[in-house]
Amino acid sequence: MNNNKSGIVPSAGKILTEIGENIKLARLRRKLSAEQVAERANISRPTLLSIEKGMPGVAIGSYAQVLFVLNLEKDLLKVAADDLLGRKLQDAELTVKERAPKK
User: Fold this and answer.
1) b/e for 4-13, b at 16 or more Cβ within 10 A?
2) 41, 63, 88 from 73: Cα distances, Å
3) What does the buried/exposed string (b/e) look like for 54-63 if buried means 16 or more CB atoms within 10 Å of the residue's CB?
4) 51-98 pLDDT tens trace
5) What are phi and psi of 67, to 5 degrees?
6) What is the Cα–Cα distance from 43 to 56, expressed in whole angstroms?
7) How far apart are CA 61 and CA 64, in angstroms?
């Protein structure tokens, strides 16, 4: 069990931090202010800043709205798209049924 105050696994926290940094860099590359992106995403500026810091309490819908504003919404489709572990687990449970003998 983790003992941090956010209630999030440390490795997940690092991933959220990296996602937030990526979003901030994407905003800056587009030369958009935090105010502009927040307004276009219909979220508050503090919520956008929380996203950019990778805070775990921000709703995924807010992330989606910001990604849409930055024209990066299709990046969400990449989440869990190639589930190698899940496929291996599923394949391990599949049973091959034998065919009935041909007449």
Assistant:
1) eeeebeeeeb
2) 12, 9, 29
3) bbeebeeebb
4) 999 999 999 999 999 999 999 999 999 988 888 888 888 888 877 667
5) -60, -35
6) 16
7) 5
What tokens were used for 23? 């979003």
Could you give the CA distance from residue 93 to residue 46 in angstroms, rounded to a whole number? 47
Both structure tokens of 27 = 């905003």
For 61, how many CA atoms within 13 A lie in the half-sphere containing its CB? 2
Q: The tokens of 100 are what? A: 């009935």
Tokens of 89: 């687990």
pLDDT at 22 (0 to 100)? 97
